Amino acid sequence: MLKSLHLKNFTVFADATFDFGKHLNVIVGENGSGKSHVLKAAYVAIAVSAQRAATAPNDSPTKSYLETAIADKLRNTFRPDELGRLARRRWGPSPCEMIYRFDQPTLDLSLRFSATAKSKVVITKLPATWVDKLPVFLPTRELLTIYPGFVSLYETSQTQFEETWRDTSLLLGNLLARGPRESAIKALLAPLEEAMGGVVELDKAGRFYLNLKSGRLEMHLVAEGLRKLAMIARLIATGSLLDKGYLFWDEPEANLNPKIVKAVARTILQVAQSGIQVFIATHSLFLLRELYILQKQNYPNFDTRCFGLHTGSDGAVSVQQGKTMDDIGDITALDEDLQQAERYLDTEMGVPLTSPSITHAE
Q: Which of 23, 269, 291, 346 is the most buried (most CB within 10 A)?
């Protein structure tokens, strides 16, 4: 479990610490407030460690390896022109610092780099062991329709796609999990397959289909909301989202209707219950309320943390955090949803509208 992440002079963050919960972590903020940056910053170090554990399990962590590998991962995930562009600019030297603390102290890692850094970071705290399971990063876009040939294209061509897309595509192509874990996987898949009306399949040519009762449907003909469900269903079926591990999901609600968002909320909590530490970034009031309702009803003992990102007058983003949404301060995007609901109720009840813009329109 990732216990905390400290970011100093990193992109929009001058000095921010995130103390994470064991089960669910919800990051809320306006567009441009750094929600995705937090997810990616946490993901990068975990992914580098876990990928090394998978390819060279007998090797111990070394500064020389991590200083290059993490720099590469940061560049390929954030896609700046140079590594140093990720360091927040201000008067005087301002090196960026990133500190990761885990429930297992042998995994603790910290690093820094300057605004002039190009290809390496400096490791200031070397972990003694590797993370033992690959994290999952779900971007706002579904990947099943671009899966055929995408990994080979990414690895053989100069592209501007984020490396999280490549990492997740590799996991989507894994073989289906078999053995003792199948019963747990089936329990997680059942509500997703019911919502989709079918089962996700990968053919020998590397193309995904949704197998319906009426026959197979090519994935690019499936509605986008269902494709996002299909992506997480596939990752559950391969065992990537079972037992210990990490899920980072950027705006799960993007392009989904409320009915599908409800299924997504239920899946998020079920995945967290299975032992995955979940991190989501959102500004959807509907999703937040659905998570709250389901958690109150079915998961009252979850260790959950909420984070509100707030941009100051100097452009730096600060964080307010706590166990509930009441602890994160006012988020304009959420307030707008609430105010619209109040205006709608006022309209239905015949209460006069006093908004200047509405009065002018009348």
A: 291
